[in-house]
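queue> pop job 88
queue> type: inverse folding (structure -> sequence)
queue> payload:
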């Protein structure tokens, strides 16, 4: 997508071919900082500290992290250690485990002295696959926005509500939940996005708002609890969110479940956009999805920039009040209108997904 009118991705191979570079998302929206990852430890830290985040981008970064690890120890032991270090960084992200399994499978048949080049090539391919998948999600999802416009009338602006950040910053490019929005905007369909601030990390207010603004998409940041009010007033045509893991039930940033409940109560369609590597085919029940608990300081404190351009962090809560920081919640499939995948839109169920991905049915058999 575009930053200041220039096409840009979230991760790319450095010009020297020996490292990768990323947008440091912890510095957005006030500073566009590029960080060089040169080794396994750099890649693990980038994922753990959320310099990169979003399930698809985490997967791509992990793939490149495996490649960087091969410059340090290309042996089978080094391969195993690298995968173990990376899988421990974010337990909920299905794409992380998928990318690591893919890299291990690919490199197992390669001689150690050739593993770095082979790993870079496979990581590049994973990144390009992500771009293609998300572009296709946009092509299928834009039809839902077109249908909403027909319901509103040709002169109406389609109102989309989203939660957290599932735009191009959460992927290599295009995004998942926002890919249909970008397709609609670029096609001249009038669309406006209600952007949940998404506490405690405020990834809607800082990341989603930033990338929509950079690309020129009209949007408004709202407090997390405003969504139900807007739906009840008829000011939301459809909700589109992303997902970090999926069985039919949807694991996504904390607060997604409440948006789905409000949408169901107000007959607002609630869609989840997901690339197929995000689907956890081994889980039968979303209740067993591991829910990451992050540092309570993310709840007790908030970071921002002063008018003078200085980054500061301040405490919100009483010093002696404990805090819990649940990073995700699970939305039951019964509250999800449909899933937007790279192969089309389907019901939020295993059978619905298997109709789009029949090869998974054969593999299970």
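queue> result:
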């Amino acid at each position: 997508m575009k930053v200041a009118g220039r096409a840009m991705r979230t991760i790319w191979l450095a010009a020297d071919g020996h490292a990768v570079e990323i947008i440091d998302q912890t510095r957005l929206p006030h500073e566009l900082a590029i960080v060089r990852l040169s080794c396994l430890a750099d890649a693990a830290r980038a994922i753990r500290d959320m310099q990169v985040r979003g399930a698809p981008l985490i997967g791509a970064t992990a793939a490149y992290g495996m490649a960087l690890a091969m410059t340090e120890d290309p042996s089978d032991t080094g391969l195993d250690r690298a995968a173990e270090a990376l899988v421990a960084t974010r337990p909920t992200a299905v794409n992380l485990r998928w990318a690591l399994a893919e890299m291990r499978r690919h490199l197992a048949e390669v001689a150690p002295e050739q593993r770095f080049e082979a790993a870079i090539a496979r990581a590049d391919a994973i990144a390009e696959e992500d771009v293609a998948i998300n572009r296709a999600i946009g092509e299928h999802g834009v039809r839902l926005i077109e249908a909403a416009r027909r319901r509103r009338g040709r002169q109406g602006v389609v109102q989309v509500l989203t939660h957290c950040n599932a735009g191009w910053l959460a992927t290599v490019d295009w995004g998942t939940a926002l890919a249909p929005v970008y397709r609609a905007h670029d096609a001249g369909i009038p669309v406006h996005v209600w952007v949940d601030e998404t506490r405690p990390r405020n990834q809607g207010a800082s990341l989603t708002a930033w990338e929509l603004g950079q690309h020129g998409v009209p949007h408004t940041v709202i407090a997390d609890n405003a969504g139900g009010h807007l739906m009840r007033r008829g000011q939301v045509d459809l909700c589109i969110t992303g997902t970090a893991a999926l069985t039919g039930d949807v694991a996504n940033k904390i607060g997604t479940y409440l948006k789905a409940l409000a949408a169901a109560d107000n007959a607002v369609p609630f869609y989840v956009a997901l690339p197929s590597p995000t689907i956890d085919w081994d889980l039968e029940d979303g209740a067993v999805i591991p829910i990451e608990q992050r540092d309570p300081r993310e709840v007790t404190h908030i970071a921002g920039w002063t008018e003078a351009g200085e980054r500061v962090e301040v405490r919100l809560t009483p010093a002696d009040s404990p805090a819990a920081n649940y990073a995700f919640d699970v939305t039951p499939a019964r509250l999800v209108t449909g899933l937007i995948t790279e192969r089309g839109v389907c019901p939020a169920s295993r059978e619905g997904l298997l109709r789009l991905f029949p090869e998974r049915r054969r593999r299970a058999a």
